[in-house]
Amino acid sequence: MAELTNDREYITVGELSVGFSEHIIVPTYEFVGKNLTLNFDGPKSMVLSFLTNEALSCEITEHGISEKYISSYLAIEPRKNLYFIDFIVSFGNAKSVSVILDKTKGFATVITGLLPDEKAINIPIIKSAEAGEALTKVQVQFEHAAVNTPFTLDTGKHETTDELIGQRVQFVYSSKDAYEHIYLNEKFYSWHCIAGKEKGLCDTDRCFYYKLDENLYCFVWLEKIIPTIGIVIEDFDVHRSYGKICGYEDYLPGKINNFPVGSYATPLNNTSYDYSRLS
Known about the structure:
eight-stranded antiparallel beta barrel, 17 strands, 5% helix
């Protein structure tokens, strides 16, 4: 077994975040002073008002009831006219909101992650398995919206994809941290730390795949041992990934650590299966 660099095998998100953002890309400030209205399929809308380089206002209205938040945010442009906007809502729960906005096509995918409370964290995995529940207690919701226009039957959306399944890819996040992903099937992937603070650790977790454009994907994963949501945009035209990791700073609920990540991506191999001999 590989020797680990920490007395505890599974480190906190706070410990993981140190030095992990070495290869991020510079943010964009082109939305400052502007508003974005996202209209969903149903009686719900979200208005993002970009107040400064660092702060936005988010007003969510559903069934005539509105909630408004002021949050710090990150906005990046991985490809021309395609944006990743990310912020935290801490108002009675630990919620992260990530918007993948296609300015050219006029639609967006809104990914809402919800971290579990202490009661949910302390449910043994075997109990969740017995109850037929998800092993991870992190929750995620995907919603599609039209940008600055009403949602109609003609509104496009990012679709789920199986194009990554079978791929094994190495991601180098810093001069010290590298992982590989093995995309197993439509619900699960395996991660393996090959260098860095978690060297030698690996696990298999719930995941989701969306295609954004040719050779451009959104990959979302939910970890079960240390409750974490990760959202990255993987661009295989330039062999990069960009996004964020979010979880509690320490092992139990409290301060949220939501930090940007970026990496250099190297496809290692692709596995396919021959089912012709199976009855």
